Amino acid sequence: MSYEVSITRKGYIVVDGVNHVEEKEAVEHALNLALQNGADVPISFASMMWVVSAIKKPGGIVVPAPSGLSLVSQLKAVPAAPSPGASFLEMTPADLTADPSALFNAIQNTSYRGVMLHAGTYDASSLSPTRSGTASDPVWVMSYPGEEAWLDFGGSGGNINQHSDYLYWHRLGFKNAAKGRGGSSWTIGVYGAHSRAIYCSFEDSNGTPYMVLENNDNWGLRCASYWSNSAAVDTPGDVDGFSASCNNAYGESNGFSGCLVLNSCDDGIDAWKSFKTIIEGCFLIRVGFKPDGSDWGGDGNGLKLGPGISSGGTWTYPDSSMWYRTDLTARWNLVVYPKTSVLTPNAGANQDVRSNTLVGSVLKEYDAGGAPEPLPAGNIAYAILRNNLLHAGSLSRTGSSPSHEVTNSWDIAGFTTADADFLSTVEPTYADVVGKMGDTIFDMMTTGAFKDLYRLAAGAPEIGAATDLGDGHIDLGAYMAG
């Protein structure tokens, strides 16, 4: 039995037990509630940029959705920030000036749930926190609610090496970290598990802003990285916007959700040497280029995927005979005019790449690469590419392309797009985001000035009934008006 949900910007979604997997995950719980015993009940679930307007029940009965139902994001949920109180230490910039170790000592102090930083710029130095929280009570390092705190490492080369679990960085700004260290360094390098960077902004870092080096379940949520570069070192490059490249150590189920990368030196998000990484709802813009349009000197890939580890290296997949397997997911991302490629798979296997909007440059198509061919029996495939939209770019197929492709723009005969088919082609610039926190930037990209960036306008272009989802249009790319 199939159900249809009428939604703005997406047309109809057909949900059944087999196809349209991501849509099924997004709506099946709500449909179950709405259809239970024929009753209409309030629905609350998440789906990126969707607003349900009606539910068509079996038999063609259309039921209006409950009033006020707004589905803002199917992205990974953001933990609710705690409120001030006696369980949190509070700091001002003067406290850190008086005692450079004050922030480290505050994080380590087990008498408190964490530390809240009042507004201002903090003269920061390197930190290596080791205190861990728990799933029910993580350690918080955050701006005081309603205020904005920035940690400025001042070009000293300072950065953060986190050797702890359940440590949450919330709505903080980071400037000038890892100066002179280059791509082997980072602003926050995570060695522990279950860490979160939430609504954080990373500005002018000479190391990858938030880099998962080891372990599991570490996430960057609604963060922003701009002007990440290694220009202060002899060899430019190797500084990504964000990275889950696990430092030759096994780690899995890490991810980035709803993040912006603008003008990073090397790659937008680097998932090479990672396993079960999820990259979803991210905005990767002008990767590999400086704000003035000149070349940083790095690789310049928007989404860099890849095998668990290159052959002969340290295995990140538990079974070393499957070093090429990643089980990686990239969905609902918007990649705009990177220097080299919108997406490069690096021959990783079991990659699920769907509903991404890829603008400009080259899409490096999936091929055998260094992985064995044919692949071993079982549920291993090179990739599933589905409902991706490639605009103003080209395909680069260098091998046998054994990926499973379904209704991508390049699979549809006669499908073409022009800039005029999109509601907007105006990109954010460094000047638009500099000095802003991650939550403000995320709002700019999803509900504000840049919400229509490379969003297909209704009816442009028309797609035949054989490939549509119910309204004459295919559910193509990261989002679609309809």
Give me the CATH superfamily of the largest domain: Single-stranded right-handed beta-helix, Pectin lyase-like
Strand content: 25-35%
* Poorly predicted regions: 1-73, 310-316, 462-473
Structural class: mainly beta
> Overall pLDDT, averaged?
76
User: Main β-sheet, in a few words?
Assistant: 12 strands, parallel
CATH classification, class level of the largest domain: Mainly Beta
User: How many individual helices?
Assistant: 5
Tell me the quaternary state.
single chain
Any chance you could write out the topology, listing elements then pairs?
Layout (H helix, E strand, L loop, with lengths): L2 E5 L3 E5 L5 H15 L16 E6 L3 E4 L23 E4 L1 H6 L3 H7 L5 E4 L2 E4 L15 E5 L5 E4 L7 E3 L4 E4 L1 E4 L10 E5 L5 E3 L2 E3 L4 E5 L6 E3 L2 E3 L15 E2 L11 E3 L2 E3 L6 E2 L7 E3 L2 E3 L15 E4 L20 E7 L2 E3 L4 E4 L4 E6 L2 E3 L2 E3 L18 E4 L2 E3 L2 E3 L7 E3 L23 H4 L4 H9 L36
